[in-house]
Structures are given as C-alpha cells and as structure tokens.
TrEMBL record:
The lineage of its organism: Eukaryota, Viridiplantae, Streptophyta, Embryophyta, Tracheophyta. SUPFAM superfamilies: UDP-Glycosyltransferase/glycogen phosphorylase (SSF53756). This is UDP-glycosyltransferase 76F1-like. The keyword GTP-binding does not apply. Pfam families: UDPGT.
Length: 468
C-alpha cells in the first residue's frame, strides 16, 4: 500500500475523534495553539478550542468554548506583571476549568455542531497552564502539552534547582559574564530569569511548570531537530516523556489561512529596495523605558536604513504611545517615509517580505522562529526570561544575529544594524537555517515524521468515557 493510501486510511479512522485544546491567553501562546489546531484538524481530528477569558482587574475567569475552525479570538490584555499573572491564573482557573471540562465531557447534546458530539481523545494544554494537569487526572483524561518556547530554554528552566544549588542563582552582578558550564553556551546573564522582588514565587512557578510538563503524556515543541538537536537529545536523556518537535508550526499553513489586518505595512514595505528595511518589534508583552525607547529611535535614525517599527500603545512605560519622540522625528529623517511606525503589524508577512533585511527583536520564541524561517538575520535585544536564552543561541550557536551586549545604546544599535545588513556570513547562515526549516516539513523530514508519531500517539489513547 502506498504511503498516501496509508495516510488516507488512518485519517478515515481518525475522523470522529475530538481533541480539546487550551492555550495560555497571551498572543505568543494563542497563535501557536491555533496553528496546532489547524494542523491536527487537517489530520482528521475535530477540535474544541477552550479559550480563557479574563479580566485583569478582578481576575475572574469564565471559559468560552468554540468549535474549531473558527473566527479570530479576542486579543488578551498584555500584563504588566507576568509573574503574578501566571501564578494567579494557575490558582484561580482551576475550578472554572473543572466545571468547563465536566460540561464538555458530558457530551453537550444541545450543540448543533456534529463535531461537538465526537468522543474526546485527549486534552492538549499549553505547558504554562499547569493547573490543567490535576483536573485532567481527576477525570481520567489523557493530557499532553504544547510548549511554545524553545527546547534549549526549557533545559535551562529544568536546571533551576541545580543552578540554585551551585549558586549561579540568584544572579550576582560580579558573575554576569561567567559561563554556566552545565548549560554552555549560556553565561549567567543569559539565564531565563524575570525581574521580581519575590524570586521564590518565580522558582515555585517554574518547579510546577517543569514538573507538570515532564509528567504529561507527551510534549509538543514548536521547534525542529536540525535547530535544537543537542538540546532535544539532552532533554530526552533526562526525561522519559515522549517528545515531538514538529515545528515550525506556522509554516504548515498558507498565509491566507490566518487573518491579517494592518495591510498598510505591506504597501509601505513595497516602496523600498530589496533587503533594505529594518523591522523592529518587541512582541506582545514586553515594555521598555522611555530612555531605551529614545536610544532605539536615535539608533534607527542614525543607521540610514528604512525601518518599520511596531510600537504598541502602552509599550513605552509611562507613555500612551509616541509622545516621548522628539517632535518632527519621522519627518526629519530625510528621504520620504524612511521610518514607518505602527501599532501592530502582520509580522509573519512582514518577515517574509523581500524588502526586509534585518529584525531588531526581543527574541520571543515565536518571533525568533518566524525570523529563522524567512532567513532574516536578527539584532537581539532580549528583555526577560527565555528571551535571554534565545538571543544567546541566535548569536552564538546558530550565528544568525548579533546581540546588543552593552545595554540599549544608540551607537551600538546603529553599528549592529549596519553589521547585520552588510554581514555576508550571518546572511549565509540565515539562508542555510531557512532551508533546514523548510526541509524538516517535507515528507521524510524530522518534523513531518514527528507529526506522524504524534498522531499515532494520540490514536493510542482510549476515547474518553465517563466510567474512566
Ligand atoms: N506579532 C504580530 N504583530 C506584531 C507583534 C507581534 O503578529 O506587531 C506576533 C508575532 O508574529 C508572534 C507573536 O505576536 O507570533 C509574539 O510572540 P513572541 O513569542 O515573539 O513574543 P511574546 O509576545 O510572547 O513576548
């Protein structure tokens, strides 16, 4: 029997099974979970997407359940205190989630959607929603997780007990440049910490997150083997949990499958020379000081390249939007429309545009993967947590970018942009990685095979029945 027929036969069997997917309600987590939903739907599963709606003031939770495919979901509010947000979410969401799951598992006969009636195979939870483990266990429902960050940063999170024991943590100023031997190439300053006056709360959160990830029935990674083979090998050596590196998730989809407003960016890009534009974005959560904002603005102004800059309202601490910029800043840059500032951009499309030549990024994992997949070299300006690890790998392992090492300073930004724009080696490395990201999804590629294994793994679960 041919491979294709094999696949078709399997999908015939699979149709009629339902998966419950629950993302962490933040942009950088909802997007990959939506992409995973599309991928598994295309493999014959029906999908119920459980979206946590929350109100930042009172942190009251309700769950709305939508069958998938569906329209775009509402964007969550970026949080100003991520650590507290995650801690509270994992405490307060437990009971409403239990109620929500009880309703779903009792087969909502009132639903008119045929797919809502399909028996449930398992729960796929964002790894940061570790409250889902206890609830899934209490119902006897298999749970696997999607980790939306890199494998390499997870290794660092998993090493926290050791890092504390060996006194790399808490971080001391005099040790910043010291290499962490157990986690090379990371230095102490690359460790994935957050700024907090309650580090024990952070360590507790990480302990739960790591434990409920590695005790799940499988971990799905938005990464691919050629990129993180050594970290994946270390992780599989440390933990027996089945691992599925099936990324880059966004590359399974045609761009037209995801909604993309803000098209004005694309027509602006169109006016510039190939590979000449610096794209600047710090993701959906990070905030920066007014002083750093101005250093970036002057670095961009002085580098002489056109730039497209995403400044989210509220991203500059203490400002509504752009009022910290000197008046006439954009108009005085010289050349018509050399700088374009927007509140949000269709990032995947922007990075795929032939006029973009470099990405000044905070190195959130999605942004890092999206840049790698388009062969766009990076200037790394990590802000917190796993972004530090990602930036170190980009600059020193994959060698597809340069990291701002002296803080946020206009001269260094200008020099780094020029170097990256003109650097032949970095550009060649970026092209090679881009090709590897493409190949891993082809038939026989590592992510293609991992996805097949994941589907087989899901099919090995008994469908849920209340008697479990
Ligand atoms: N993003 C976007 N437009 C923007 C800024 C960000 O579409 O103007 C998307 C980006 O493509 C990525 C996600 O938001 O998929 C941000 O995730 P990432 O992990 O890079 O950073 P986070 O927001 O979690 O810090």
């Amino acid at each position: 029997m041919s491979d294709v027929m094999d696949v078709e036969k399997m999908e015939g069997i699979r149709r009629g099974r339902r998966l419950l997917l629950i993302p962490l309600p933040l942009e950088g987590h909802i997007n990959p979970m939506l992409e995973l939903a599309h991928i598994l739907h295309s493999k014959g599963f029906s999908i119920s997407f459980i979206h946590i709606q929350y109100c930042t003031n009172s942190l009251n939770f309700t769950f709305s359940i939508s069958s998938f495919p569906h329209g775009p979901l509402p964007l969550p509010q970026p949080s100003s205190d991520l650590l507290n947000f995650l801690t509270l979410l994992n405490t307060l969401a437990l009971t409403p989630f239990r109620d929500c799951l009880a309703k779903l598992l009792s087969h909502d006969a009132s639903s008119e959607d045929e797919e809502d009636q399909h028996p449930i195979s398992c729960l796929i939870s964002d790894a940061m929603c570790f409250f889902t483990q206890a609830v899934a266990t209490s119902f006897g429902l298999p749970r696997i997780v999607l980790r939306t960050g890199a494998i390499s940063s997870f290794l660092a999170f998993a090493a926290f007990p050791l890092l504390l024991q060996k006194r790399y943590l808490p971080i001391q100023e005099c040790q910043l440049e010291k290499v962490v031997e157990e986690l090379g190439p990371l230095r102490v300053k690359d460790l994935p910490v957050v700024n907090t006056n309650d580090p024990h709360k952070f360590y507790d959160l990480l302990r739960n997150f790591v434990h409920e990830t590695v005790t799940s029935l499988g971990v799905i990674w938005n990464s691919f083997e050629a990129l993180e083979s050594s970290s994946l090998a270390k992780l599989t050596h440390q933990f027996p949990t089945p691992m599925y590196a099936i990324g880059p998730l966004h590359k399974y989809l045609q761009p037209s499958q995801m909604p993309h407003p803000h098209q004005s960016c694309i027509s602006w890009l169109q006016q510039h020379a190939p590979k000449s534009v610096v794209y600047v974005s710090f993701g959906s959560i990070a905030s920066i000081s007014e002083a750093d904002f101005l250093e970036i603005a002057w670095g961009l102004a002085n580098c002489d390249h056109p730039f497209l800059w995403v400044v989210r309202p509220g991203m500059v601490r203490g400002c509504d939007w752009l009022e910290a910029l000197p008046s006439g800043f954009l108009e005085n840059l010289g050349g018509s429309g050399r700088g374009h500032i927007v509140k949000w951009a269709p990032q995947q499309q922007v990075l795929a545009h032939h006029c973009v030549g470099a990405f000044l990024t905070h190195n959130g994992w999605n942004s890092t993967m999206e840049s790698i997949c388009e062969g766009v070299p990076m200037i790394c300006m990590p802000c917190f947590a796993d972004q530090n690890v990602n930036a170190r790998y980009v600059s020193h392992v994959w060698k597809v970018g340069l990291q701002l090492e002296k803080g946020v300073e206009r001269g260094e930004i200008e020099r780094s942009i020029r170097k990256v724009m003109e650097g032949k080696e970095i550009r060649e490395r970026a092209s090679i990685l881009k090709e590897e990201a493409r190949l891993c999804l082809q038939r026989g590629g590592s992510s293609y095979s991992s996805l097949q294994r994941l589907v087989t793994h899901i099919m090995s679960f008994n469908v849920y029945s209340p008697s479990h």
